[in-house]
Amino acid sequence: MKKNYIFLLTAILAGYWINLNGQSTPRQGEILITEIMVNPEAVSDANGEWFEIWNSSDHDILLNGLTLKDAGSNMHILNSVEKLVIHSKSYWVLAKNGDALTNGGVHVDYVYQNFTLSNTSDQIIMTAADASLIDQVSYLSGWPIVSGASMELHPDYQTFSGNDQPEHWFPAKIVFGAGDKGSPGKANSISSGLEEWGEGIKIDVYPNPSKERFIVEASFPDPQAGTIKLINLLGQSFLIKSFDEIQFLKEVIEPDFLTPGIWFLELTAGRKVKVIRLIIER
Ligand SMILES: [Ca+2]
Ligand SMILES: [Ca+2]
Ligand SMILES: [Ca+2]
């Protein structure tokens, strides 16, 4: 009997500890797979595969001990001397390679080993330390697998079973990092409602590469409000200009405050976006 009390007391104290720290281990559906880059193009697969998870719960979750595996022999257990805490309603990116300079420009929260993503069919299965299933996605032909673009889950289907259906996934539309499309660590581009400008917009950026200044000229089929941002390979963005209901745009950008190298100019107008690669020289 005494043993039982001690066990009960320990369990209660453990519960308090978890509550006091505001973190607990995941339960099914609390951590969801929301984006998968199976086939990068800007860098090799060995350097550029990653996937994104989202904490759907209203509390912080400890990921130490979470197992990643597929239906074959791939397996990795998340381990660290630090607490691996994913905050409520936050994204994490797990990748093969944590170096943003060589992985295609992805900010990575956790680097795994012995886990690869086939370009045709594969599984991401996440289980807790007690072997209970947290979430899984199993993709195969019929899924939107595109070279150089991640698969993004539509936000209406961010649930344990919602991400099991291929029709709930879409190829990413917005460029990040070194030129591939995706939204690692951010809300999926499908959810922002943004679409890439196709017909209708005329945009010119010159000279490119440039040492001193870029001139951006754009015209839209009808007046638009929007922004011009410069984004580096680490995903850091600098707002250059906001504009209101204009049909023609001419902007001189003097990027002397920016480090030389590869940058992206992101022109958002209305609900559409265009990304152009820039090279800043010195
Ligand atoms: Ca791959
Ligand atoms: Ca699932
Ligand atoms: Ca995303």
Description:
The protein has 282 residues and is mostly beta strands. It folds into 2 domains: 21-192, Immunoglobulin-like, CATH 2.60.40.1260; 195-280, Immunoglobulin-like, CATH 2.60.40. Helices cover 10% and strands 40% of the residues. The protein has helices spanning 2-21, 45-48, 189-192; strands at 23-24, 31-37, 50-55, 60-62, 67-69, 75-77, 85-86, 91-95, 110-111, 122-127, 133-139, 151-153, 169-171, 195-196, 202-206, 214-232, 237-253, 261-269, 272-280. The strands form 4 sheets. It has a 6-stranded mixed beta sheet, with no helix packed on it. The protein is elongated. It starts with a helix and ends with a strand.
List the helices and strands and how they pair.
Blueprint: H1 2-21, E1 23-24, E2 31-37, H2 45-48, E3 50-55, E4 60-62, E5 67-69, E6 75-77, E7 85-86, E8 91-95, E9 110-111, E10 122-127, E11 133-139, E12 151-153, E13 169-171, H3 189-192, E14 195-196, E15 202-206, E16 214-232, E17 237-253, E18 261-269, E19 272-280
Parallel strand pairs: 1-4, 8-9, 14-19
Antiparallel strand pairs: 2-3, 2-12, 3-8, 4-7, 5-6, 5-10, 10-11, 12-13, 15-16, 16-17, 16-18, 18-19
Bound molecules: calcium ion (3 copies).
One calcium ion binds at residues 38-39, 45, 49, 117, 119.
